[in-house]
Write a structure and sequence with these properties.
about 375 residues, alpha/beta, Rossmann fold, six-stranded parallel β-sheet, 13 strands, about 20% strand, globular, disordered N terminus
């Protein structure tokens, strides 16, 4: 009897294993072509180069994506395995979630971790201290006093200035700015302040008055939302001609709102977003991909100690790391020649957009009236 039961039990286990295998084959596989996923070369789960993303989606058509694509480009050109990690809990990710993602990358063989976004600071400092042999690239961050951490920061105020100037010179006098991070993100704040400065300079030159709706409302997590779309649609309905969408996946809400109004325009951010919508007239970009490639090259060339250890590179027009993409813009009145002339003035230091954002950003303008929406 015992033998019969043993045989029956064995057959049952085989059947269950077979069914489990069959069921697993029928389960849907991850879609690496959608908005949140991307390919990597880590077929066995290990990778030397790791990207730990900021809040929002990986393929956000902006900050996360630009950083990731720089790591991807360098890795593929040099046949090095790379992998990305998204901290748990998405837009509500905590420092513990970011620590866990970085530690997972190290367990999977990461020699260098690229992490965009100022929210990475606490987690990066914690993990870097525990893993002195692993190198960290803090994009949009600052030096942490650790030899295994290097930082890249950008002069976003330059790109913002160029975008604001171009918008007014194009003929737009009713503008909008919607920013991510709830007003606490230094990079976004510099973009917005530069945008105001550029609009003011062009308005003074043309002798016109400009109004600008300015808000961080609904942008705390850099995510798309129906609330943000409704807000921006209301702006367009009130006559706003062009909105500077400064916040990763928030772009999708602005795009949807602009779709309701034939003449509505968008100014993109971080990377060239002209391919996302015909509504995009230009984008305030920074050299995310190129700068990440550069730092990875320095690391693999053995130059970390002499060029990168505990250093924060502040990149701008002088490094060709800020500006507007002239090959794809849809501006008709402001010419590429005029843009190049202005860009060279910023590059040479003749024009220096301010980066210290004032406490009352609505005050002190002569030709721009700022309508704050909190």
């Amino acid at each position: 009897m015992k033998k019969v039961l043993a045989v029956l039990l064995a057959l049952t286990m085989v059947l269950c294993i077979g069914l489990a295998a069959a069921c697993s084959k029928d389960q849907p596989q991850p879609d690496t072509t959608d908005e949140t996923a991307a390919p990597d070369t880590s077929s066995d789960g290990t990778a030397e180069i790791a990207v730990v993303t900021d809040v929002g989606q990986l393929m956000d058509k902006g900050f996360n994506q630009g950083t990731y694509e720089g790591a991807q480009a360098y890795a593929e050109a040099n046949n090095i395995a790379y992998k990305y990690y998204q901290p748990a809990n998405g837009s509500d990710a905590s420092d513990n979630d970011r620590v866990a993602a970085m530690k997972q990358a190290i367990e999977n063989g990461a020699k260098i971790i690229v992490a965009p976004g100022f929210l990475q600071a606490t987690a990066m400092e914690t993990v870097a201290k525990e893993n002195p042999d692993v190198k960290f690239v803090f994009v949009d961050g600052w030096a942490l006093g650790l030899d295994n951490v290097t930082a890249i920061v950008y002069k976003e105020q330059e790109s913002g200035y160029l975008a604001g100037y171009a918008a007014v010179m194009e003929g737009y006098t009713k503008l909008g700015f919607t920013g991510g991070g709830g007003g606490t993100n230094p990079a976004v704040n510099r973009f917005g302040y530069g945008f105001l400065q550029g609009a003011e300079a062009a308005a003074e030159e043309k002798g016109v008055d400009v109004t600008m709706k300015y808000s961080f409302k609904y942008g705390e997590t850099f995510s798309a939302s129906t609330e943000l779309q409704t807000q921006i649609a209301g702006w367009y309905a009130d006559g706003v001609e062009a909105v500077f969408a400064c916040g990763g996946s928030m772009f999708q809400s602005v795009k949807s709102a602009a779709g309701e109004y034939p003449d509505a325009k968008i100014i993109g951010v971080d990377v060239d977003q002209s391919g996302e919508s015909e509504k995009v007239v230009t984008s305030a970009v920074k050299g995310l991909s190129a700068s990440v490639e550069k730092v990875l090259g320095q690391f693999y060339d053995g130059k970390w100690d002499e060029e990168l250890a505990d250093v924060a590179q502040n990149l701008g027009a002088a490094d060709d790391a800020t500006g507007l993409p002239t090959e794809t813009w849809r501006l008709e009145n402001f010419t590429v020649e005029q843009y190049q002339e202005l860009f060279e003035k910023i590059k040479s230091g003749e024009i220096v957009p301010k980066d210290e954002v004032p406490e009352d950003i609505a005050a002190g303008w002569t030709h721009v009236t700022v309508d704050l929406e909190k």
